[in-house]
Amino acid sequence: MGTLVEIRNVSKVYERGKQKVEVLRHIDLDIAQGDFLALMGPSGSGKTTLLNLIGGLDSPTQGQISVGGTRIDNLNQGALAKWRASNVGFIFQFYNLLPMLSAQKNVELPLLLTKLGAAQRKKNAAIALQLVGLADRAGHKPTELSGGQQQRVAIARAIVSDPTLLVCDEPTGDLDRQSAEDVLGLLQTLNRQHGKTIVMVTHDPKAAEYASHTLHLDKGTLVEQAAHA
Amino acid sequence: MKYLHLIWAALFRRKTRTILTLVSIVAAFLLFGLLDAVRVSFAEAGQSANGAERLQTGAKLSFIQPLPQSLMTRIATIDGVKEVAHANWFGGAYQDPHNQIFTFAVSDNYLDIYPEVSVDAGEMKAYNDDLNGILAGEVLIKKYGWKIGDKIPLQSQIFPNKEGSKNWSFNLRGVMKAKDDKAFQSQMIILHWKNFDETTPYNRGNVGWYISRVKDVNDADRVAKAIDALSANSDHETKTQTEQAATRNWIKQLANIGLIVTSIMGAVFFTLILLTGNTMMQAVRERTSELAVLKTIGFSNGSVLGMVLAESVLLLLLGGVIGLGLVAVISAGLPAMSGGMITTAAVSWKSWVLGVVLALAIGIVIGALPALRAMRLNIVDALAGR
Ligand SMILES: Nc1ncnc2c1ncn2[C@@H]1O[C@H](COP(=O)(O)OP(=O)(O)OP(=O)(O)O)[C@@H](O)[C@H]1O
Ligand SMILES: [Mg+2]
Predict the structure, then answer these.
(1) Least crowded by CB within 10 Å, which of A149, B106, B169, B262?
(2) CA atoms of A112 and A122, how far apart (whole Å)
(3) Model confidence over A76-108: pLDDT tens digits?
């Protein structure tokens, strides 16, 4: 399978006043199309920063990143936003659903940026909700759902516009064991059955086992590579 | 437009707070609508086309000082004067001293000066034939349920009749109908000056003020000076001005309504901007992570800016329209409740336009800062709660 994400000599430096903090140092990484990659490492090692660069939420200080053949390291904010809308789905630790919208409307959000009409948006969102097993909760507000259910709604929102790449930042960090397993199983299905390439940051080795392999970050560099079955 | 439900949902994210804010906006626009109606009706007072060609002549010193009736023929001979009439203040109360009715004792040609007022020819003749006859405005007739031929008792504030009593009684002979509902005659009573002059022992040939109609509006200034010249250096010097100017001067003596209204509204809207602006700022600050999510999903900086701006404009428009709508409801009821004393009908389209423009402008002013903040929001920092 081909390479989806190509990261070449990427560094990220944050400036705090006069002090410069080098959060990522000379990262080289290829992520294959259809891969399910787990990113682990101690707190502050730069996992979220790397994930944000891959998802096009931020740009590197130095180096090149291309996703699906598109160089995204030198895109401006507007172009990045457009690119994200059609290429990446995001899943966060705290679900980040809009509290005043129903599950259905939350899932429809990314489709507002497409040319789809209202009826088609509704239909696609319903399909995505069905895929995560929450068709019967379409009308519920986030506060009326459990944490695991909210995260599944967030997954439905991430996949509704059919992106090739899913980036997940500690998607099970706030869930109990059972809900975490549901969510991880769902991600695995999306990876295996639907061919989604997934990059997942996690602190939990059990969660990492669902991925096809794991990379470790420490102080901004990739330190070791361990392949799973 | 497909973002409308997002904007609406954001607006009512905190129902109580939004409703309280909305109430204060409604209150501000209610006040604006009512005060603007007052301002407009004062500004329009005496501004009819006919008003421009009418001159009012009163005593220079004070409008309660009377003028000699002999001035009538002298004014009539001035070149440019088409017609001259005169009137005295009678000041009638009907049944109860609180039911004050504007009542003037007028010369027989008085209504010729006011072509906007019409009286049925037969009724006019009956009035002219009866020295104790009166004409009453149609609003009054409706209000008190009078019929032609009724004996109408009126109490003068000042003038006694021959028996020394201030309680007079007149015969209602006709109705004054105004073609334009702003004509004040539809709410007043006129009686024969001759009757007044002969009955009360205190008048004896005096006139309260003169009203003349000029042949040419553009000539009004010259005619006014010529009228005042007649009495120059006498013991009854006069001051002549157009009806509009007279009305405006009278209002100016009360107060500068326009300035008062403008400064009250300025203070109200200034407070509204501070309060609502603060609320909007707070609302956006609370939604930082939600706005970051929208941006993450791919909403552009511009559309996030637009949504926040639209939210505050929508809030203001909602409040403004409800406020002005209430004014419309209230002012539709006012003429009936006040028995016609207040004629401000519905909110004028000018008030609506001004109100909506104000709501838009305030909405933009209030929304600008939070919208810019939302636009500049850094996704990575916002998601990390920095
Ligand atoms: N915008 C920023 N400005 C300054 N410093 C930053 C910024 N973003 C990240 N950092 C710093 O970079 C380092 C790495 O942050 P990052 O969030 O990538 O770590 P992480 O591996 O995701 O940690 P955790 O496991 O706690 O989520 C941290 O020391 C953090 O303080
Ligand atoms: Mg992190």
Answers:
(1) B169
(2) 11
(3) 999 999 999 999 999 999 999 999 999 999 999
B381 lines ligand 1 (CB under 6 A): yes
Please tell me which of the candidates A99, A101, A110 has its beta carbon nearest to residue B297. Answer: A110
Could you read off the pLDDT of A107-152 as tens digits, one per residue?
Answer: 999 999 999 999 999 999 999 999 999 999 999 999 999 999 999 9
Asked whether the beta carbons of B287 and B341 are under 8 A apart, the reply is no
Closest ligand by atom to A19 CA: 1
- pLDDT at B340 (0 to 100): 46
Q: How many CB atoms lie within 10 A of CB B289?
A: 17
* Identity of the residue numbered B21: T
Q: Residue B242's closest CA among B68, B104, B79, B48?
A: B48
> Residue A55's closest CA among B180, B149, B379, B171?
B379
Which residue CA neighbors atom 31 of ligand 1 most closely?
A44
- Give the tokens for residue A176: 């109990």
Cα A172 to ligand 2 centre (Å): 13
Say what angle helices A77-87 and B301-337 make with each other, to 10 degrees.
90
Interface predicted TM-score of the whole assembly (ipTM), two decimals: 0.92
Other CB atoms within a 10 A radius of the CB of residue A150 amount to 25
